[in-house]
Design a protein that fits this description.
The protein has 377 residues and is an alpha+beta fold. Helix content is 22%, strand content 25%. The chain has eight helices and 22 strands. The chain has helices at 58-64, 100-110, 179-186, 262-269, 271-274, 279-289, 316-331, 340-358, and strands spanning 5-7, 10-12, 19-21, 28-32, 40-43, 72-76, 79-84, 90-94, 113-118, 124-127, 132-135, 149-152, 156-163, 172-178, 217-219, 224-227, 234-237, 242-245, 249-250, 260-261, 292-296, 299-303. Strands 6-7-8-9-12-13-14-11-10 form a nine-stranded mixed beta sheet. A four-stranded antiparallel beta sheet has the order 15-18-21-22. A three-stranded antiparallel beta sheet has the order 3-4-5, with no helix packed on it. A hairpin with a 2-residue loop joins strand 21 and strand 22. Helix 7 runs antiparallel to helix 8 (340-358). The longest helix is centred in the last third of the chain and has 19 residues, at 340-358.
Length: 377
């Protein structure tokens, strides 16, 4: 399906009863200007000479409508590049599914190119500020792209950094960009001067959420305050901020004792997200604070249970020791700032545990033994 034909030496859009010449093969093109389909040119032979061509829909028209006609359907050998942008880079617009063979062939053919996939109402998206996470559902083969890959979610364009299977129902993550950023970096030399990307949007899709009813994205039920270790300032995540739960696990059938938890996968495979945790320290804080491992603001963190719900089955001295360790994690932005009332509640519960288990409150020994920090009489 073509948007332009060669008509008397000029690049022309379709018009009623129009006839033109294909810029690739030189074959006769007939204008299709019906009321039910996007106006386009079609080969008289009914066979498109470009085997990579696909139907033109609203999403294609939106992006191509931003740029001048000479940058659209640019002939490269026996193929037509969707858009040729700044410095001659090919912007390949992809709405439909694509095979591994076609991905490899296009990247080899065009060389200097980028992919822009239509993700509107098709893929799932969780923006966390400095990073965004996505799911492509049942869509296949995107991870085979070796050239720069962008997913267009509407007003946001995600610059894919990495695909991963470390987190249940998450396909990967990347840097959230705006459509204005994308147009400025790749299309600024060919934009119509009067086009304003921010004022335009694509029609509503009608696709389905690839996460469906089950999804790893939740919302904070209360405001939380965290330390930014780079600046030492306090960062507040308000109520209803989205986060990704990473406490799911997987195991091989017949071997349920060897569970592979998402947070272990993140720590072992993605240090840029792991936030300095080790598997041992993360489990220690989750156990102590009755917490959940989450990705919030693009970093792995522990979200504690409300103070009233935190189970404390430790002695008061051990609870104090763990609160000291928690302060280290708080300063590193791994645990939220704990209110004084929460700390007091934890210590009170520890004392209640001592009374219940030992019949009295234990007193720390002044002399450590065997290298242990906390010993009791």
């Amino acid at each position: 399906m073509l948007r332009f034909a060669n008509v008397q030496g000029q690049k022309s859009p379709p018009f009623p009863k129009g006839r033109g010449v294909c810029p690739c093969c030189g074959g006769l093109l007939i204008a299709k200007c019906g009321k039910l389909v996007t106006h386009h040119w079609a080969h008289e032979s009914k066979v498109d000479c470009d085997t990579w061509s696909e139907s033109i829909g609203p999403w294609h028209l939106w992006w191509q409508g931003l740029v001048r006609p000479e940058a659209i359907e640019v002939v490269r050998g026996y193929h037509r590049a969707d858009i040729v942008g700044n410095n001659g880079i090919v912007v390949e617009l992809q709405h439909s599914s694509i095979s591994p063979e076609d991905i490899e062939a296009r990247e080899a053919f065009y060389g200097d190119m980028i992919w822009l996939f239509d993700a509107t109402d098709r893929f799932a998206y969780c923006d966390q500020g400095n990073l965004a996470f996505f799911s492509v559902g049942k869509t296949k083969h995107l991870e085979l792209c070796k050239k720069p890959l962008f997913l267009d979610f509407g007003f946001d364009v995600l610059q894919v950094e990495q695909f991963t299977d470390s987190v249940v129902m998450i396909s990967g993550f990347g840097i959230p960009r705006s459509r204005e950023w994308f147009a400025r970096h790749y299309l600024s030399d060919i934009l119509f001067p009067d086009k304003k990307v921010a004022e335009l949007h694509i029609p509503a899709g009608g696709g389905t959420d690839p996460w469906g009813k089950k999804k790893p994205v939740y919302k904070l039920k209360y405001e939380t305050r965290w330390i930014n270790p780079a600046t030492g300032t306090v960062v507040t995540f308000p109520k209803w901020t989205e986060y990704i739960k990473v406490s799911y696990y997987r195991y091989n059938v017949g071997d349920s004792t060897n569970k592979r938890f998402d947070y272990d996968n993140v720590i072992n495979r993605h240090p840029e997200i792991a936030n300095g945790w080790t598997c041992e320290t993360l489990r220690q804080m989750m156990d102590f604070l009755g917490g959940t491992a989450i990705i919030l603001g693009g970093s792995l963190r522990v979200l504690p249970s409300p103070a009233i719900s935190i189970p404390v089955l430790k002695t008061a001295s051990m609870a104090r020791h763990l609160l000291e360790l928690a302060e280290v994690h708080i300063l590193a932005g791994r645990v939220p700032i704990l209110q004084d009332s929460t700390k007091i509640k934890i210590l009170d519960k520890a004392k209640e545990h001592e009374q219940h288990r030992y019949g009295r409150e234990l007193r720390p020994s002044n002399t450590p033994k065997n290298g242990q920090v906390f010993l009791f009489e």
